[in-house]
Design a protein that fits this description.
359 residues; alpha+beta; Tetrahydropterin Synthase, Chain A; 3-stranded antiparallel beta sheet; rod-shaped
């Protein structure tokens, strides 16, 4: 059976398509709906009085292009596109501008290869992941402690006179060349530690035990610092050694008591030697003074022997008799009783006289 064809007015083979006549399906029609008529088109609603945004205008244009509606999911895709665009712009701004502090330097690498160094201030680079900036603090003084609190024998060092000491020291260092520091060494801190141990062992092997634990520490520290700097410069490490400090230099704990006893005996012996040397210097100076005085007296004696001899006699007798309880006078013309202050009775004689009176 052949199908029915609609006419140009959208009416069926019996007519009365969308009008309000008999058998029509108009809004005011009372009869049954014609199955052959097209459904009435809905009129578009009134536009909102509010001005649409740019995104809404774009969506409306797309709807008009596709006959009043967009393909499924197109509106969501458009919103995600704008969000991704905003995120990309923010990413470019944040990863292209870099603020470097006065004590910092920024190392710029492009796909992993060094290209430039940013100084203090604000610098511009290509966004990540094209360019990557690593900030380094070049003014910070870092410190590595070696041998502090070690319980094993890894920090026992042999001295030049074949003694063993337990060392604990620290190394202070800073970054001198950021580019070399970043790319020359795989692990800078481990390298500095190994170089410090090597330099310290080499210097301790050249000195004695007394120099290592005594007044020779300062010279050892200076030589270790110079040796470390020379080795690190040969490695092109970009590191500046600020200083080396020996914090502990003691004998091993197993022989610490015996070592202290030996050290005390050595210090006492050295003290006795110093005292003996001081006394010898004093006696030598006195002997030299006496010899100089004798030379002067001998010179005067050669000029006037008799007068000098008598003077020496008088001075000698005066010195000898001044220490005895006696008074010497010449006998001619002297009275038998001399009321001299020195001629007082002795306390023993006075005591005997008092005892006789008591009897």
């Amino acid at each position: 059976m052949a199908g029915y064809v609609l006419n140009d007015n959208g009416e069926g083979p019996w007519g009365g398509g969308g009008g309000s006549g008999d058998g029509g399906d108009g809004d005011g029609g009372l009869g049954p709906r014609n199955p052959w008529s097209q459904p009435p088109r809905r009129r578009s609603g009134r536009r909102s009085s509010i001005n649409p945004s740019a995104i809404e205008q774009l969506v409306n244009r797309g709807r008009e292009r596709f006959g009043g509606r967009l393909p499924n999911g197109f509106e969501n895709r458009s919103m995600w596109g704008w969000a991704l665009l905003a995120f990309a712009c923010l990413w470019i701004v944040l990863t292209s501008m870099h603020r470097v502090e006065p004590q910092q330097r920024g190392i710029v690498t492009r796909f992993g290869r060094y290209v430039a160094t940013l100084g203090p201030g604000v610098g511009l680079t290509f966004p990540a992941p094209i360019d990557t900036v690593t900030k380094l603090n070049v003014d910070e003084i870092r410190q590595i402690d070696i041998g502090a609190g070690a319980s094993d024998t890894s920090y026992l060092v042999l001295t030049g006179d074949e003694n063993i000491i337990d060392l604990a020291y620290s190394v202070r260092w800073s970054i001198r060349d950021p580019e070399l520091y970043m790319f020359a060494l795989a692990d800078p801190e481990d390298t500095i530690r190994e170089v410090a141990e090597s330099a310290m062992r080499a210097e301790i092997a050249r000195v004695t035990l007394q120099d290592a634990i005594g007044p020779g520490r300062g010279a050892i520290e200076d030589r270790v610092q110079a040796r470390m700097q020379q080795i690190l410069d040969g490695y092109r490490a970009g590191i500046e050694v600020e200083g080396v400090a020996i914090n502990q230099a003691d004998p091993p704990s197993a022989v610490n008591d015996a070592f202290k006893a030996v050290s005390a005996a050595q210090q006492q012996a050295q003290s006795d030697i110093n005292n003996a040397n001081a006394y010898a210097q004093q006696m030598i100076a006195k002997a030299q003074g006496d010899a100089a005085a004798f030379d002067k007296v001998f010179a005067q004696y050669r000029l006037a022997p008799e007068v000098t001899r008598r003077r020496m006699y008088y001075e000698t007798m005066e010195e000898v008799l001044s220490r005895v309880d006696k008074t010497v006078v010449e006998t001619p013309g002297v009275m038998p009783y001399l009321p001299l202050p020195q001629a007082k009775p002795k306390p023993q004689a006075e005591g005997n006289a008092s005892a006789g009176e008591g009897q």
